[in-house]
Recover the amino acids of this structure.
């Protein structure tokens, strides 16, 4: 069995209301999960990505690793 390593950008943020860390994977239809700690959220995200890849394979859906350049920026706006 061949080993395939892929990289995905993950947005990780703390949700004050839920008191949980939340992740989003933009390259995979913005799938999302959470955890009580950063580590738990990222571990859950790894499992979610693996499940997504497995389900996509069964459905014959092809996709690649996240190769898009992305950046998280602060955007300041003025509300009048």
């Amino acid at each position: 069995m061949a080993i395939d390593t892929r990289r995905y950008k993950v947005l990780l943020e703390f949700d004050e209301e839920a008191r949980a860390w939340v992740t989003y994977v933009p390259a995979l239809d913005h799938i999302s999960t959470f955890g009580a700690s950063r580590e738990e959220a990222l571990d859950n995200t790894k499992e979610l990505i693996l499940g997504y890849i497995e389900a996509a394979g069964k459905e014959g859906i092809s996709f690649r690793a996240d190769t898009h350049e992305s950046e998280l920026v602060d955007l300041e706006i003025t509300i009048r």
In short: The longest helix spans residues 38-58. The chain has one domain: 1-80.
